[in-house]
Amino acid sequence: MKPEFKILSPTAILGYGFPVESFLRGMAEKPDLIAVDAGSTDPGPYYLGAGKSFTDRAGVKRDLRYMLSAGVRAAIPVVIGTAGGSGAAPHLEWCRQIVLEIAREEGLSFQMAVIPTDVDRETLHEALDEGRIEALDLVPPLTHHAIDASPHIVAQIGVEPFMRALAAGAQVVLAGRAYDPACFAALPILRGYDPGLALHCGKILECAAIAASPGSGSDCALGVLREDSFILKALSAERQFTAESAAAHTLYEKSDPYFLPGPGGVLDLTGCRFIEQPDGTVEVRGSKHVPRPYQVKLEGARPVGFRTLAIAGTRDPIMIGSIDSIIEAVQARVAGILGEGSPARVFFHLYGKNGVMGHLEPAKEARAHELGIVIEVVAETQEQADTVCSLTRSTLLHYGYPGRVATAGNLAFPFSPSDVRAGTVYEFSIYHLLAIDEATMFPFRMESIGEELPQ
Amino acid sequence: MKKMLDLARVVRSKNSGPYELVLDVILKDDQSFEALRESGQFSPQRIASAYGVPVTDIRRIVWFQPANAVKVVMPRHIVSGSPGDSDVYGAQQHAPLLDLEFDL
């Protein structure tokens, strides 16, 4: 019988925070591993495209300070997946600098493996020509142009690159973009635990206490792997795991709860059982990992222009009643002033009407007593976006719609200036599978942190 | 007639990647789950009409007994965060489900 293997997951996303008491309760369990998933594509294409983190630096540093100090003191690995939120080279370096700062400030020394997961363009052009790139469901086929236009292209790595780094003696592993469960599952798999259980446990732990009841993205959770099952345990008195909360989390953000595809295989949960224990924990059995030909998911985003926006509101019932025709008329007037081939796309987000659901909104008529209006302009240059936003805003402000009685102005602006430059706009350009020879990809770079570093 | 919230304790939407939207309904108990599933009334046609989309947009409906849940997979018509999007995370697209009623 194998001993238990305990994984401490402090928080759903590195930088989201956690109560210190929960973390200390987790450390008191004498975990074998502290792991955290630091990223997501949820916040949209900007962060990957621009090479910026969607999490706050101070928040990440605070979380990491606890994790690194406790991990080094207890001599257990600290494994971080999807550094910097998107896991491309600038994100990885951003997070690495935070680790170095903490090591200096806390006087910590350790071996750190850094695993870049960027995929170079030549490799991708070649793979595309050789037919080794496959589009995911609903995604258009990849083009050479998309490869060239995307500043950062990353692959979601599986457990293997983490395992190689841990086997080489890394105490801290800092990886670029990684399959969410990989940072949790790599060490137990290396130690001989079942990959299906380890990956499913990681899949739940990657959101930390979100899978508990009541859920929280900023509280700790503990996973305990055994030979033929794993246990989920909450680490604060206010929450516990239930069979339903754990099972429900298996649905979350997945298109099929029974088959969860990942790098090199699929997690088959058709035989999975969630067994509630009387002590507020849940035992999970029967999760299977079925190997498949090795593919990694690629992600990329490309710039598509520059955005300027203006925020305003209206409280006029006559205007609200005919808002659609007013906006149509304003757009026609703006187009008339700008002339043929206007370089900008203009979007009106009408909060109180269909600002949230857009064309999917089943309630077609606005019945609210006030509307929030966001004028969004995307153009080839920032100056063009500014010009079109300014013109659209001033035209809407003074447009004399039929039946108008409030002739001093149609909009209430909460801010001066009314128009805000929002910078470069990105869109997802790559979300495809790449067939790889896993053993040749994503090597780590080992760094000695601490003593040898110049102060 | 049973209203959605007579039967369900969670009704939510979220991206599953930037190109897909998933709707999750977690029923209150085994009985509600079985009754809804057996009734055939949580159908692609009804969901498509609630959202005003063609029935072919309802890519999959998956019943997941371990969580007493049912999942609907739809395409995002605007990819997450692309110009014109209104819900980058896809977390506020669930409301039309709240208006559904079922004869159970």
Description:
The complex is a heterodimer of chains A (455) and B (104). With 455 residues, chain A is α+β, with helices and mostly antiparallel strands. In chain A, 31% of the residues lie in helices and 27% in strands. Chain A is built from 13 helices and 19 strands. Chain A has a ten-stranded mixed β-sheet, sandwiched between helices. In chain A, strands 5, 6, 15, 16, 17 and 18 form a six-stranded antiparallel β-sheet that branches. In chain A, a hairpin with a 5-residue loop joins strand 12 (273-276) and strand 13. The radius of gyration of chain A is 25 Å and the shape is globular. Chain B has 104 residues and is of the alpha+beta class. In chain B, 25% of the residues lie in helices and 31% in strands. Chain B has four helices and six strands, in the order βαββααββαβ. Chain B has helices spanning 4-7, 30-39, 44-51, 95-98; strands spanning 2-3, 8-15, 20-27, 60-64, 69-75, 101-102. In chain B, the strands form two sheets. In chain B, strands 2-3-5-4 form a four-stranded antiparallel β-sheet. Chain B starts with a strand and ends with a strand. In chain B, 43% of the residues are buried. The mean pLDDT of chain B is 96. The interface between A and B is large, with 46 and 45 residues.
Keywords:
heterodimer; A: alpha+beta; 13 helices; B: 104 residues; alpha+beta; two-stranded antiparallel ribbon; 6 strands
Assembly level:
heterodimer
Helix share, percent of chain B: 25-40%
Q: How do the strands line up in the largest sheet of chain B? A: 2-3-5-4
Quickly count the helices of chain B: 4
Task: Report the major sheet of chain B.
Answer: 4 strands, antiparallel
Please count the helical segments of chain A: 13
The end-to-end span of chain B amounts to 7 Å
Q: Helicity range of the residues of chain A?
A: 25-40%
DSSP strand (E) fraction of chain A? 25-35%
The coarse overall form of chain B would be: globular
Element pattern of chain B in H and E: EHEEHHEEHE
